[in-house]
Amino acid sequence: MSQKQENISPNLEGIKNIIVVASGKGGVGKSTTAVNLALSLKDQGATVGLFDADIYGPSIPTMLGLAEGTRPEIVDERTMKPIEAHGIKCHSIGFLVDANQAMVWRGPMVVGAFNQILNDTQWGELDYLVIDMPPGTGDIQLSLAQSVPVTGAVIVTTPQDVALLDAKRGIEMFRKVGIPILGVVENMSLHVCSECGHAEHIFGEGGAERIAKDYGVDVLGSLPLNIAIRERSDEGIPIVVADAYGKVSEIYRSIAARVVSTVKDLNSSLRTPNISIMDD
After folding, report:
1. Residues in CB range of 264: below 8 A, 6 or more apart
2. Would the pTM of this model clear 0.85, i.e. be above it?
3. 31 among the known binding-site residues?
C-alpha cells in the first residue's frame, strides 16, 4: 500500500477509482465533459460520484439542475452527505456559498477548502468518483496528487493551438506527479450547420490526434460544436439525460466505455506481479 493510500480519509476508502477531468485552460468544456462522463458511467451500471473541485467557478450544481440554496446534510457536526441528482452523488463548493459570492481566496485557503470538502463527504461505496478540476496546473492539482490515490486523468481540449499548448502542460504536470493519462477528449471539433448541413472545423482540425501521438495516449472521443450541449447544461438536464439516444450522447457513452476499459487495464497491470524465471 502506498503512502497516499495509508493516509486516505475513511470517507474515500469505499471508492474504487478516482478519475480527474482536467484542462490546461478554461472555456474548453471541461465541466460539461465531467458531468456527461459521470452520467454515462452511471448508465453503464456503475455507482458514481461527482466532485466539483473548481473552487473559483463551481458550475456542477447548475448543470445538474439543483436549485440555488441546495445544501448538503451535515452529519456529526463535521461530515456531509452528498447531494443526489440524475442517479449520481455530487458535491461542490457551490452548495456551501451564495451563488453570487466571489471566492477571493489565496492558494492555501483554496487547497484547504478542496481537501475538507473531498475528505469530509460521506461518499459511500462508489465504482468511480469523477473530479471536475479547476483549469490550470496549480495548487489543487498538486495537493490532489500528493494526498489521494488518483486512478487517472482525462484531459479536455479544443482543436485551437492555444488550447493544445495548455493541454500539453496539463499532461506534463500529471506525468510528473505519477498520474496516468487515460486519454484526451476534444470538444468543439466540428460545426455542422443546422440549416444546410455544411461541416466546418471552426477551431482547427486534428489537434487532439497530434497530442495523442506526441504523448502516446488515446483520443477518447471528439465532440461537435452543438448548441444542444450548451442548452441542456444551462437547463440542468445534461445532454446524455435529455437526449439519451442522440448522436452526442452516443459519443459520451463511447468515451465512458473507453475510460472503463483503460481503467480496467491499469488496475489489472497493477495487480499482476512481474515474474521472472531464471536458470540456476
Report:
1. none
2. yes
3. yes
